[in-house]
Design goal:
Number of helices: 7
Strand content: 15-25%
Largest sheet: 6 strands, parallel
Number of strands: 6
Amino acid sequence: MEPLCPERRFLGEQGMAGGYADYVAVEEDNAALVPDSVSDEQASIAACAIGTVLNAVRDVDKVAIGERVLVTGAGGGLGVHAVQMARLAGAYVIAQTTAADKAPLLASLGAHDVVVSTRGEDFSAKVRERTAGEGADVLLDNVGTPLFSAMRRSLGVNGRWILIGQVTGDREGFGFSDTRIIDSLASNQEEQDHEQEKATTEIDREVQGASRAGGDEGR
């Protein structure tokens, strides 16, 4: 897998300058073709924010229809896409955020429930209340150690903990046997091509819908 390549390097990181340049020269296999119907703004987040979450939901965890998925840090760049991906996979989505003003947005993106908590608060009781006391089947963790205890208590028996983001460099010790913890990596070339193709399909669908609506209004 490309994200596991020991020689991987990123523009703007690891001594590679040029992330803000107008033009950058890279080898062909390090670039992804962007369809004309996908904007530069959309393409810029396909590999990281969208690709990482797509990899977590579809390939790493294989979220199934009807599973209860808790998304932490749901109001962030990874979280908003995790909510949408989990909903598209057919899951019952619980979004956790510390920003109360983002609750309506998260609901509009597909969250069935939004848990608003203060920073450092143990929100596990709220999650269990929304899952009939059983806890979440899947945790899409976009925050890491700051929410460790609350996330652990929010998971049900044999729950799957998918590590996506880590906002601090802190470490946390733990010991339990009824939870599976899995790390999700960034997307590879094949996945990026699929993301661009899917984006083109969605845009075409929106355009066709808008055209039909316009035609109906004309009548």
